[in-house]
Amino acid sequence: MIEINQHNIQRAIEKARQTKPLVRVIEFRTYQVTNRTTGAQYTVKFSKVGGKKLAECDCKATKVCYHIASSVALHIVLATQTVNA
Length: 85
Ligand SMILES: [Zn+2]
Fold this sequence. Notes:
By secondary structure, the protein is an alpha+beta fold. The chain is about 35% helix and about 35% strand. The protein has one domain (about 1-85). The chain starts with a strand and ends in a 5-residue tail after the last helix.
């Protein structure tokens, strides 16, 4: 799990804007991200521990990747509609 903050999400958002991956909800806090060019699929999971926002992705990146960045906007919307998000 990687902690998301304003600093590390910014670069990933830039890449997400360029690649425009397809994001699908699997269940609350779990998303499937598809690269439209290669068809590669990745699973992104979010959690919240002591006020920290954490995320993980099963791609090989060791920092906040664009898969996380592209899922996070959708997650924020869904989380605000869900109790105990
Ligand atoms: Zn990733």
